[in-house]
Design brief:
about 170 residues; mainly alpha; Growth Hormone, Chain: A; two-stranded antiparallel sheet; about 75% helix
Length: about 170
């Protein structure tokens, strides 16, 4: 395995890239379309999680280089940083898409529903992952097979989304 404390550092690398990629993700959503950008992010997350499941554990913890501010980089660091960029494409474009699906009178309701379900997912996710780990005799890698299943369900639901794209500046100014 990895030395103690490396798990938190790996998540820090993912989070760093998420924050770094937030503005580009919004720009991509504005130019390619939010729906398409979210779907690209979902494909990225599915692919990366499946790679983390399929690749031998030994290959994931190969030290690559030390990077100032990010610490020791491993193969899994690269996968997690790409996951951070993919997650930014999903996350940054989701709330604006929900808000643009409604009128001004219901923006608060739609925003509340968005945060309600986001928070429920944040509460349920770790519990579901804990059950998966317990049911598989502490095999943490199975989380990387269940995650893509939920991402695939999100992708399928996004196929049906037809509203919520950014409005051109000329329309939104009037």
């Amino acid at each position: 395995g990895l030395p103690g404390g490396q798990g938190a550092q790996l998540l820090g690398q993912l989070s760093f890239v998420f924050v770094l990629f937030a503005l580009p993700a919004g720009y991509i959503g504005g130019s390619l379309g939010r729906r398409r950008t979210i779907m690209i992010g979902l494909i990225g997350m599915i692919t990366l999680m499946l790679l983390m499941f399929i690749l031998p554990k030994e290959s994931l913890i190969v030290p690559l280089a030390k990077v100032f501010g990010l610490g020791q980089m491993y193969t899994i660091s690269i996968l997690l940083m790409l996951a951070g960029a993919s997650w930014a494409m999903i996350n940054v474009n989701s709330l604006p898409m929900v808000v643009d699906m409604t009128d001004n009178a219901r923006i608060g309701t739609y925003t509340g529903l968005y945060y309600l379900f986001s928070t429920l997912a944040a509460i349920a996710g770790p519990n579901i992952n804990g059950w998966i780990i317990a049911l598989t005799n502490n095999n943490y890698s199975y989380v990387m097979i269940v995650g893509p299943i939920f991402m695939l369900m999100a992708f399928i639901m996004m196929i049906g989304v037809r509203r919520g794209e950014a409005k051109p500046l000329s329309q939104s100014a009037s």
